[in-house]
């Protein structure tokens, strides 16, 4: 988990990152941009060094956002600094990660004029405004983790091309909205419906670039917990997280959580457009992994998240006071079966102890866990957490590898010492 | 690490969302002031920034020529980037010069 919690440069990484001056950002003081000043004015440097080659990320406060790590500026991709996850079980809206695929993201949305179409293989197509969505259908609230398929891609070894995320392309929120199945049933699903396809208001720059469209099999789309959400942690969605509505597919990777959702189309054939094939696919084997270099392995669309857990109260490299009991806590989550237990180790996995689970916010959200240990002076510890879900699935002890860098869920390690 | 680098600036305009009218949310994204660094075939590589910022290039781990070629061909064949067959290798050479596993000597002027 490295140096997520440290701002500014660290000597050892400074050298490593010396050529990435492009990451340096203009300081802004009191809201005045320093655009146009000389390079000398670009101080203080505000950045986080992710523990990976080319891992320096500038910090910047985008509209409706606190300072987040800028992975890319167009399309916007912002990573949540890992320290945020130690602040609470729900990830604040202004700290929630951002990931757009195409550069034409509307920056002005009229919530009154925005409409969602439900069409295709349905008996009666619908066009719903956001107020109609809120008033005509029953509302539901679900705590759920939204995690990018490529969260932690930067830690793959060997490295793979793609968005070079640390562990901060995830977040947990309380989503409020209406059931997708209620919308589909209102429209009436036609005979031969196979999938439901989702499109948002974002668009590509070039006409030849595939629009970002995602599809779910009809049985998944009709699931009880798939919602069209208009509220996030009790507030409107930040524009960069999909205002005014986005799809929420609890337990499934964020690629399906289409933002600025304005088109729901029931289709009679399996969608195989670019973002379903060849993009966002995993090897069709139980581990979703292959050996580096292995070719021609059949693939399937990525789907449910696998089990993960993190230590969030202690940063890698921390020094703890010796001789006193130390509380260590973190979060765990899975693909929607619910966390049953989290184990904790202080010796790199040789011995494991049960932790105490925090409040249950439902089977799709972060589940807090708490442990305690007493470090001794001069000793070093490798702290690890290992989550097990309600159907017995647990984290991997050795990282999986696949060419797209999806689904990392290895048991992570936080190294600390005590004085 | 001795290669030249660009000094680029994220213009960070800290803006609050504007409520122009009830239910309307408008934001202003920070201006993008990142530019491709000088390197061989820079002119050909300018096509990259039509669709995305240059951090897409520099955040990657250093990639091999096969990996960069595969990225360029993905842009050309799947994302509809107007890149001619003859421009593919020059762009690969540029990308290798910027963030390649095999270091390429910078040459100037670009061919």
Description:
With 419 residues, chain A is mainly β. Chain A folds into three domains: 89 residues, no CATH class; 165 residues, Oxidoreductase, molybdopterin-binding domain (Sulfite Oxidase, Chain A, domain 2); 111 residues, Immunoglobulin-like. Helices cover 6% and strands 32% of the residues of chain A. Chain A is built from four helices and 26 strands. Chain A has a five-stranded antiparallel β-sheet, with no helix packed on it. The longest helix of chain A is centred in the middle third of the chain and has 8 residues. Chain A starts with 10 loop residues before the first helix and ends with a strand. In chain B, strands 1-3 form a two-stranded antiparallel sheet. The N terminus and C terminus of chain B are likely disordered. Chain B has four helices and three strands. Chain B has one domain: Cytochrome c-like domain (Cytochrome Bc1 Complex, Chain D, domain 2). Chain B is 32% helix and 6% strand. In chain B, α3 packs across α4. By secondary structure, chain B is mainly α. Chains A and B meet through β2, β3 and β6 of A and β1, β2, β3, α2 and α3 of B.
């Amino acid at each position: 988990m490295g140096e997520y919690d440290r701002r500014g440069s660290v000597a050892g990484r400074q050298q490593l990152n010396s050529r990435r001056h492009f990451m340096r950002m203009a300081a802004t003081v009191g809201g005045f941009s320093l655009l146009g000043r000389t390079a000398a004015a670009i101080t203080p440097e505000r950045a986080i060094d992710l523990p990976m080659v080319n891992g320096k990320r500038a910090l910047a406060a985008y509209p409706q956002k606190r300072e987040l790590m800028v992975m890319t500026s167009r399309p916007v991709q912002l990573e949540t600094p890992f320290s945020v996850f130690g602040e609470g079980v729900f990830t604040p809206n202004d700290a929630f990660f951002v990931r757009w695929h195409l550069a034409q993201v509307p920056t002005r949305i009229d919530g009154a004029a925005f409409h969602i179409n439900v069409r295709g293989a349905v008996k009666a197509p619908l066009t719903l405004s956001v107020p109609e969505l809120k008033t005509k259908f029953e509302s539901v609230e679900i705590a759920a983790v939204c995690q990018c398929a490529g969260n932690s891609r930067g830690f793959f070894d060997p490295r793979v091309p793609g968005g070079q995320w640390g562990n901060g392309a995830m977040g947990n929120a309380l989503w409020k909205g209406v059931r997708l199945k209620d919308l589909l049933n209102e429209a009436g699903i036609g005979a031969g419906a196979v999938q439901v396809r989702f499109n948002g208001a974002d668009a590509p720059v070039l006409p030849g670039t595939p629009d970002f469209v995602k599809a779910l099999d009809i049985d998944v789309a009709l699931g009880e917990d798939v919602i069209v959400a208009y509220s996030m942690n009790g507030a409107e969605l930040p524009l960069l997280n999909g205002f005014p509505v986005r799809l929420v597919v609890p337990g499934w990777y964020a690629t399906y959580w289409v933002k600025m959702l304005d088109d729901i189309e029931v289709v009679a054939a399996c969608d195989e457009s670019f973002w379903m094939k060849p993009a966002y696919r995993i090897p069709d084997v139980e581990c979703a992994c292959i050996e580096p270099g292995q070719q021609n392995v059949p693939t399937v669309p990525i789907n449910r998240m696998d089990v993960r857990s993190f230590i969030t109260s202690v940063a890698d490299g921390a020094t703890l006071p010796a001789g006193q009991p130390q509380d260590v806590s973190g979060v765990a989550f899975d693909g929607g079966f619910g966390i049953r237990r989290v184990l904790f180790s202080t010796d790199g996995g040789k011995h494991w102890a049960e932790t105490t689970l925090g409040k249950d916010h439902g089977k799709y959200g972060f589940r807090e866990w708490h442990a305690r240990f007493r470090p001794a002076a001069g000793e070093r510890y490798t702290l690890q957490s290992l989550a097990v879900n309600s159907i017995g699935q647990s984290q991997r002890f050795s990282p999986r590898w696949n060419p797209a860098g999806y689904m990392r869920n290895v048991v992570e390690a936080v190294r600390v010492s005590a004085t | 690490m001795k290669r030249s680098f660009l000094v680029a600036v994220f213009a960070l305009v800290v803006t609050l969302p504007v409520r122009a009218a009830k239910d309307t949310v408008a934001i202003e994204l920070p201006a993008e002031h990142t530019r491709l660094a000088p390197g061989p075939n820079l002119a050909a590589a300018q096509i990259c920034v039509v669709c995305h910022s240059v951090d897409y290039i520099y955040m990657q781990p250093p990639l091999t020529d096969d990996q960069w070629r595969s990225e360029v061909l993905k842009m050309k064949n799947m994302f509809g980037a107007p890149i001619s067959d003859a421009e593919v290798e020059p762009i690969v050479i540029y990308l290798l010069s910027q963030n390649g596993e095999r270091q390429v000597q910078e040459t100037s002027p670009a061919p």
